[in-house]
Write a structure and sequence with these properties.
Rossmann fold
Length: 277
């Protein structure tokens, strides 16, 4: 398998010419709106990484005999450079996230209203001649790692350089661990758990790949999976080994299920998962 096919198989979209000897950003098939991937290629070896899915670079080696000692030195050098660049970019993202959060005010959100939370206030950033942005702080072990912003129409993006791997936005403290991809699902779960009078910590993980990583790391709880046509959410949920619920309708998440069926019916699904623990 050549490098371009290898990169494509790992979700990267290299639509222009292949850059040699330089770490290069590119789009990914799971999120074409931003350059969420990177690759490095040097004739006989290379690596690629989709930051939303991979914990570390995925290594490619050409199908021929190579000097393994020299190859390992090249790999280490390129990966060290990559880690340094990522760390520098992430520090810039953290500063930008902290600045944006400092300028937010607690206010109503058009996006949250569309998800059934008409009276809920959240971190909202208002700037002249721009749509207001809902700002979701992302934390790793309690420390800011970046920011997700959501437009009134529901478009989501991370502040450039955000480290999303193992990052969460947590609601509550103690009790049952619940893992979700998106904020709206997490808030819906909060309503249901309040109705059930069960203490919980709800982890909004921002993507299916990161949900799997966070859930496996913590090692207990339940999953509220999105029903993607691609089965991305279901696959991630199964790979955690934890009990999970996925709405029967393709394209639905738990928020959609809650809006359509109400808190009581949604709570019954949560209780079924709890019985499996």
């Amino acid at each position: 398998m050549d490098f371009l096919r290898f990169a494509e198989a790992h979700g990267l979209e290299i639509n222009t010419y292949l850059v040699i000897g330089k770490i290069t950003r590119c789009r990914t098939s799971d999120n074409r709106s931003k350059k969420n991937g990177a690759y490095y290629f040097e004739h006989d070896f290379g690596w690629c990484q989709n930051w939303a899915v991979h914990d570390s670079p995925q290594i490619w080696i050409i199908d021929k005999d190579v000097d393994q000692k020299e190859l390992q030195l090249k790999l280490k050098k390129s990966r060290d450079k990559y880690d340094q660049e990522r760390a520098k970019i992430n520090q810039q993202a953290i500063k930008k996230a902290e600045s944006m959060l400092s300028r937010c005010r607690n206010d109503l959100s058009q996006y949250l209203a569309s998800k059934g939370f008409h009276e809920m206030c959240f971190n909202m950033l208002f700037e002249d001649d721009k749509d207001p942005l809902l700002c979701v702080p992302m934390r790793i072990n309690g420390a800011i790692s970046g920011l997700q912003v959501i437009s009134p129409d529901g478009a989501k993006r991370f502040v450039y350089g955000t480290n999303a791997s193992y990052a969460t936005f947590d609601i509550g403290g103690g009790g049952l661990h619940i893992y979700t991809e998106g904020l709206a699902t997490a808030l819906s779960a909060q309503v249901v758990m309040s109705a059930l009078k069960i203490t919980s910590t709800i982890h909004c993980c921002f993507s299916a790949g990161n949900l799997k990583k966070v859930a496996i790391k913590i090692g207990k709880g339940i999953i509220l999976a999105d029903h993607d046509e691609s089965k991305t959410g279901e696959t991630a949920a199964k790979e955690t080994g934890l009990p999970y619920f996925m709405p029967p309708v393709i394209g639905y998440d738990f928020n959609d299920y809650w809006l359509k069926n109400g808190t009581f019916t949604a709570s019954m699904e949560i209780k079924r998962l709890i019985y499996k623990l």
